[in-house]
Design goal:
Distance between the termini: 34 Å
Strand order of the largest sheet: 1-2-3-5-7-10
Shape: globular
Number of helices: 12
Largest sheet: 6 strands, mixed
Order of helices and strands: EEHEEHHHEEHEEHHEHEHHHH
Bound molecules: octanoyl-coenzyme A
Radius of gyration: 19 Å
Amino acid sequence: MSDYETLLIERHDAVTLVRLNRPQALNALNAQVLTDLIAAFAAYDADPEQRCLVLTGSEKAFAAGADIKEMQPNGFSHNYATNFFAGWEQVTATRKPWIAAVAGFALGGGCELAMMADFILAADTAKFGQPEIKLGVAPGMGGSQRLTRAVGKAKAMEMCLTGRMMGADEAERASLVARIVPAADLIEEALKSAAAIAAMAPLAAIANKEMVNAAFETGLAMGIVFERRLFAGLTATEDKTEGMTAFVEKRPGVWSGR
Ligand code: CO8
């Protein structure tokens, strides 16, 4: 029994596994999915026991896009007045680490949601694409920006202009995904990665995430200042003292999260 209409949630020790669960629509992202994801990610961020999250879909589809049937009646006035899609910024505001584990289709909003993750782990069946142009529109959840930053102008432009899908091998070569695993092992591998992250000092995990993200938001000089300040900040934590003491004493660190 899930608290969410469109999500299934499992806890694996300190890792939260969230499965998109609209099989009848290939996990298309409608308003309910957004409401549920915002709540699930906020609950994860607020729970000190949970240290990493994995978001996945089904074997056939991570998500086949924003829900076309829901968007069909909406025109400019509605979308502009409601700042349609802005709610996804609440998902990207998640401070703690999370991984997208993608099998099958990650198209349109599905590709854009995967790219909001800290990194993507792809099954060998994964297919990424921004086919919005075939609907007479364009990406609306950050795809034109995040895809271009991830894979560069040539591939992003080709994918957005032609709607061509990229398979897992090409996505790994283009640095869209961190790693490819056999489809049958996707969840196990994602949980393993997440457990490794969950075993790290929690404040250091947030800081590492903020630093890497700063590389996308700032120039090099400011990014390095940001990194150095945050690094100096971490040296004031109890977990820095514990981590370095544990190394010297040849034992694993025991983190307090302070
Ligand atoms: N929205 C709503 N329903 C969907 C979606 C979707 N994005 N994708 C699939 N479905 C539904 C189908 O309608 C079908 O439902 P039904 O059985 O009731 O007809 C069911 O899921 C199964 O789909 P198919 O029968 O099509 O399955 P296939 O295996 O034949 O094909 C595909 C799989 C190739 C993934 C195909 O479903 C497809 O092309 N889907 C659409 C992909 C797409 O175009 N995604 C981009 C959507 S737009 C977007 O994400 C951002 C838009 C930004 C616009 C901003 C303007 C406001």
